[in-house]
Every structure is written in structure tokens, then in C-alpha cells.
């Protein structure tokens, strides 16, 4: 899955400005897709050059002109071929898991602190996802609801696992001391 595929998917519904696309990446897709500001605009430019999208300058009163991007027929075909392609493996990139793997080189209190931080981070994300779910409820398709529900359950499972592992470390430490 490429940033291009996500952008084309957004444009399937309606034309969007670069700012709108950036907002969607930050608000809607940040839970399961990582795209930086520096990736979005070069991708838009490349897709325009390849004929997958068009750009229209729109005048705004009292503001600078904005670019409104629309998907072309070639872009629609490319997006639909993405949807029909085999699923890719999920890519996991976790600082917590890397540290944990090498945790035997760290002191026990430091490892427990990692767990506490990870639990706080996951709880914060879970709360934001719950808020977004309530905010967008009624405006979501069935598959979009399934996507958010999957994310909610995944974050809760991560929190439960982290809490259980932290408890295990505390029990081991209490047994040793």
C-alpha cells in the first residue's frame, strides 16, 4: 500500500485540497497509516504528472488560491486495481518491542517504565479513537465502522497485554527481593 493508493481512495469520494488530504492523513488515517507532510505534496505532484489526478486552482476571497485535486479515469482504474490486488503483510514498527527484545541489557526499573509509558500512550490513542468514532458515527460506511472497531479492539488488546506483562515483571521483582 502506497500513499498514492490512500490519496486516490480519498479522491474517489470527492475532490480535495492538499490541506484536506493532509488533514485526513492526520485525523482519519493516523491510526493505521503513516504519511508525513513531506510525502503528500510530492506524491500529488507525481500523480498529476502521471495523469492519475488533475489540479484546479480555486480562488478564495481574502485567502490565497487553493489547489483542488480530482481523480481521473486512469486514477480510478489504478485505485480499483489496488483494491483487487492481494493483501500485503502488515508492517510492524515498534520502538517498545525493539527495546523489549533487548531489555535484558537494561535495568528492571527502566523496563517497567517502558511498559508504563507504552500503556499511557496506547490509552491516549484509544481515547482519541473512541472520540473520533463518536464524532464520525452516522457518517461512516459499514466497512469504515468495521475499520474503527478493529482499531479499538486492537488498542484495547495491546493495553491488556502490556498491563499483564508489567504485572508479570512486578511479580518477578517482588519474588526476587
TrEMBL record:
InterPro entries: Tscrpt_reg_PadR_C (IPR018309), Tscrpt_reg_PadR_N (IPR005149), WH-like_DNA-bd_sf (IPR036388), WH_DNA-bd_sf (IPR036390). It comes from the Bacteria. The keyword Coiled coil applies. Residues 92-170 form the Transcription regulator PadR C-terminal domain. This is PadR family transcriptional regulator. The lineage of its organism: Bacteria, Bacillati, Bacillota, Bacilli, Bacillales. It holds the Pfam family PadR. Residues 112-172 form a coiled coil. It comes from Aneurinibacillus aneurinilyticus (Bacillus aneurinolyticus). Residues 7-77 form the Transcription regulator PadR N-terminal domain.
Amino acid at each position: 500500500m502506497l500513499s498514492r493508493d490512500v490519496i486516490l481512495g480519498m479522491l474517489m469520494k470527492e475532490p480535495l485540497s492538499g490541506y484536506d488530504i493532509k488533514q485526513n492523513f492526520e485525523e482519519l488515517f493516523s491510526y493505521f497509516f503513516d504519511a508525513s507532510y513531506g510525502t503528500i505534496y510530492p506524491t500529488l505532484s507525481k500523480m498529476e504528472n502521471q495523469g492519475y489526478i488533475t489540479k484546479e486552482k480555486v480562488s478564495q476571497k481574502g485567502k490565497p488560491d487553493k489547489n483542488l485535486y480530482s481523480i481521473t479515469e486512469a486514477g480510478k482504474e489504478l485505485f480499483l486495481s489496488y483494491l483487487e490486488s492481494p493483501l500485503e503483510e502488515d508492517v510492524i514498527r515498534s520502538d517498545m518491542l525493539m527495546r523489549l527484545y533487548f531489555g535484558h541489557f537494561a535495568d528492571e526499573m527502566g523496563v517497567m517504565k517502558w511498559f508504563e509509558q507504552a500503556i499511557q500512550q496506547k490509552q491516549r490513542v484509544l481515547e482519541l479513537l473512541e472520540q473520533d468514532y463518536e464524532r464520525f458515527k452516522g457518517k461512516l460506511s459499514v466497512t469504515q465502522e468495521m475499520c474503527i472497531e478493529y482499531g479499538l479492539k486492537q488498542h484495547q488488546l495491546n493495553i491488556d497485554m502490556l498491563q499483564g506483562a508489567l504485572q508479570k515483571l512486578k511479580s518477578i521483582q517482588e519474588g526476587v527481593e
